[in-house]
Amino acid sequence: MADEPLDQSEDLDAVYRRHSRELWAIFYSQCSDRERSYDAVQECFLRLHAYQGEPIRDVRAWLLRVGQNWLRDVARRKSSKPTATLDEMPNQQLSPEHFLSSDENRDSIRQCLQQMLEDDRKVLVMKYALDWSSVQMSKVLDCSPAAVDMRLSRARRRLAELLEEQGYSHE
Q1: Which of 61, 45, 111, 108 is nearest to 82 (CA)?
Q2: CA distances from 135 to 19, 26, 126, 148 (A)
Q3: What is the pTM of this model?
Q4: Closest Cα partner for 83 from 47, 35, 44, 43?
Q5: What is the mean pLDDT of each run of 10 residues along the chain (171 residues)?
Q6: Which CATH fold would you assign to the domain 96-165?
Q7: Domain boundaries, the chain
């Protein structure tokens, strides 16, 4: 999705409303950390606000590059590799046995997600963590909804294969 050049008179709030959600989703798919993803989005817009250089031709691409570089710098400084976090479903009443079993399943899924390609992780996060439709995802990924469905199908199959390697069966 090529974006129009940044109009210097354009309100920063309008740019934020247009791009922040998508940026957060992309950054979350890369680092699997809600807070760090939010911080990356904030850093992008702080740097955009302070930017005094040449006119930006593609604001979305510029913001993505700034955020991805920031995430990489933070990971290097903290000397930690990103770990996936899959959040609890709200208001669930689980037995201790079910909770432990679910926790083990989430850990296995986290490990498998870390082994997957970034593009596969991205579509799975958008679908299952953000509950986005194929149409919403197609706008972010700059492809058709049918292509998103194909990517999602392939990513689910790859995840299932990795889980099978860890001893889980299709259920």
Answers
A1: 111
A2: 16, 16, 11, 8
A3: 0.49
A4: 35
A5: 50 89 87 88 92 89 92 76 43 52 72 86 83 85 91 91 80 54
A6: Arc Repressor Mutant, subunit A (1.10.10)
A7: 12-78, 96-165
